[in-house]
Design a protein that fits this description.
Nitrilase/cyanide hydratase and apolipoprotein N-acyltransferase, 14 helices, Acyl_CoA_acyltransferase, about 25% strand, nine-stranded mixed beta sheet, Aminopeptidase, alpha/beta
């Protein structure tokens, strides 16, 4: 009697459907439906059983009415699943239909029955009831939904195959089962086969599939508020104006202005552009760009120390764009993470542009890091690195849910390369990507004289996100900040229940990405 599928539709002139909890007065309508749906399986519950179900767990008994008449329903209870395990029978786990096994402190929502009036076939009422169960499961913070599903289509194939083979063909869409196919389409997966689950179910030969839907938002235990990670993260980006500066102090004053502004809105992150300290290049010999950039590198440690101080003082994590680092006779382009707990970390740019290599002699790093922060794992890709899809995929596989891309470009063409690739990274990795660069110009500063930027934050492309997958963006070539809230729970939802599931649907039997550098 478990999990009846949706029948074929007949047209109705007008409908007024309403989803609600069942009440005792609904029994006659419910009995009428069950007698039609289960004529060979003892028909409807008794009035006493139905009353017990309502009284024991009123929230779990859901129906859809049409113009005042119940036309579909779902019976549910909560169980301590460890008490029953996988080898239970329908009679045992439902308490003989009286739900005496219902445990408000249990961990699993158990699906007892779903039934739809045959007159309402193909109106997808069963899907509405499944969705209502899922919402109830989330609201009650239960591990998931478990049900013993009938396989009535097996009666046509029992002479030619085992139930295991039948279920496998149903999963592969080679065979349609009116119940199992519907459950699979609603994100349930088969855990195992149960024998003698419902002896009166002759079509299924008393076999049932133990199916389960996992609540991806389940919290095993309440965490202390002070240590709980935020579900919504506030990210600020700085579209930085390149202006002549005569000292590190002047640069830090400008940095602090933006840090103060973003912290005033309780931002969790402040992202600065690649080579945001470029204005200090004017202090060095412009006839030798390689010498000038190495001169600029002498300020990097001081700037990082100051930005780390600001991160602590203003209680905000700062991604300090990138700056040149000269060590062991090699020049690198390095981004710094200054956490608000006072710790710092760094990510070398791995892919060096032809311009950086020929003008300055920059070398690429050999380590890709996922950074732990107080809101979860993040990754940093410096400009050109975002144009190589392997790197974001590796970061994503290691748990990074927000990617920060500080860039420096001089033309709109260069900007569009970064932007389009960042958008692709957000979609294919089901993550958020924040990008920012610099604007304005620096007369008489060789190789970093003009800038183009339009900062933005991108999301995956699905219904839970903006229709164009752009969370927000700035006015092009204008000094300003961008502040957005990013819901991390939506990333979990899309990965498991999205219209498409890029991460889950990878063909790892055909291809994979392997990191060969230093960890």
């Amino acid at each position: 009697m478990q999990e009846e599928s949706e029948p074929e539709r007949t047209e109705q002139d007008e409908h007024h459907l309403r989803l609600r909890n069942m009440v005792l007065e609904d029994y006659d309508d419910v009995a009428h439906i069950m007698d039609q749906v289960y004529p060979d399986m003892d028909g409807a519950w008794s009035r006493e059983q139905f009353a017990a179900q309502i009284n024991r767990f009123p929230e779990g008994q859901i129906c859809i009415e049409d113009n005042g008449r119940v036309v579909a329903g779902a019976i549910t209870l909560i169980v301590d699943y460890g008490r029953f395990g996988d080898k239970h029978t329908y009679e045992e786990i439902t308490g003989g239909g009286y739900l005496t096994t219902h445990d408000p402190n249990g961990d699993v929502l158990y699906g007892v029955d779903i039934f739809v009036d045959p007159e309402y076939r193909s109106m997808r009422l069963g899907r509405r009831l499944y969705d209502a169960r899922k919402e109830l499961c989330r609201r009650l913070n239960l591990r998931g939904i478990v049900a013993g599903g009938r396989i009535p289509g097996y009666t046509r194939h029992a002479d030619e195959m085992s139930p295991e083979a039948y279920i496998e063909l149903v999963k592969r869409r080679e065979i349609h089962d009116p119940i199992l196919s519907f459950q699979l389409a609603n994100d349930f997966h088969v855990r195992r086969i149960i024998t003698d689950y419902l002896p009166s179910d002759r079509d299924s030969y008393a076999y049932a599939t133990l199916v389960q839907w996992n609540n991806i938002f389940y919290e095993p235990k309440e965490q202390p508020l002070i240590t709980r990670r935020k579900a919504v993260v506030r990210v600020g980006t700085v579209q930085w104006q390149m202006r002549p500066m005569s000292s590190v102090d002047e640069l830090i004053d400008q940095v602090e202005f933006f840090v103060d502004a973003l912290a005033g809105y309780n931002a969790d992150f402040a992202l600065f552009p690649e080579f945001f300290n470029g204005p200090l290049l004017s202090l060095f010999n412009q006839e030798n760009p390689a010498e000038a950039i190495r001169g600029l590198a002498q300020y990097t440690e001081e700037i990082v120390d100051e930005m780390s101080r600001l991160a602590v003082s203003y209680n905000i994590n700062i991604i300090a764009g990138s700056m040149p680092v000269y060590q062991e006779q090699s020049l690198y382009n390095v981004s710094y993470l200054c956490r608000r707990d006072g710790t710092t970390d760094e990510q070398h740019k791995l892919h060096i542009t032809p311009d950086e290599r020929s003008y300055w002699g920059v070398r690429g790093g050999d380590e890709l890091k996922v950074f732990e922060t107080d809101i979860g794992k993040i990754g940093i890709l410096v400009c050109y690195d975002s144009e190589f899809p392997e790197l974001p995929r590796i970061l994503n596989q290691k748990g990074a849910r927000i990617l920060f891309v500080p860039y420096w470009v001089d033309t709109q063409t260069g900007y569009l390369r970064v932007r389009r690739c960042a958008q692709a990274r957000a979609i294919e990795n089901e993550c958020y990507v924040a990008i920012t660069g610099s604007v304005g110009n620096l007369p008489k500063v060789e190789n970093i004289d003009i800038q183009y930027s339009q900062s933005a934050v991108f999301s995956p492309a699905d219904f839970a996100f903006p229709h164009d997958a752009i969370v927000a963006e700035t006015t092009p070539n204008t000094e300003m900040t961008l502040i957005v809230d990013l819901d991390l729970d939506k990333l979990t939802e899309i990965r498991n229940e999205g219209s498409v599931r890029n991460y889950k649907d990878r063909r790892l039997d055909l291809y994979r990405i392997q990191w060969l550098g230093r960890d």
